[in-house]
Design a protein that fits this description.
15% strand; 3 strands; 112 residues
Length: 112
């Protein structure tokens, strides 16, 4: 009988660890101020709108290149290097892609 009472449930110890880790993650996400988040949003939108447009289309191996998304390339690198949280990186990638695609049809960018 004593062996049954001394046996501990191994699941009781492991249940609290994920909860504590998720609680710490929620605290970490709240610490970024709204002004910082808005500044990042403005920078990502501006980078997505930066296109390098050519006054005369370039032809390279049968492909005609009218514009190059230089801001999107720089933005992808900056987001990958500077943003720590994976969820925030996904959000910034989505915003950058949508803005770059929308600005590809508009006359925005630098013309050389």
């Amino acid at each position: 009988m004593t062996s049954k009472k001394q046996t501990k449930n191994p699941k009781s110890k492991t249940l609290n660890k994920p909860r504590a880790a998720s609680h710490a993650r929620v605290k970490e996400m709240i610490t970024e101020p709204d002004s910082t988040y808005f500044l990042k949003l403005v920078v990502v939108v501006l980078l997505g709108a930066m296109w390098l447009r050519f006054s005369h289309p370039l032809t390279w191996q049968g492909f005609t290149v009218i514009a190059f998304p230089i801001g999107a390339v720089i933005g992808l690198l900056l987001i990958r290097l500077l943003e720590k949280d994976q969820l925030d990186r996904k959000i910034w990638y989505a915003v950058l892609l949508i803005v770059a695609l929308a600005c590809s049809f508009s006359p925005t960018g630098i013309v050389i």
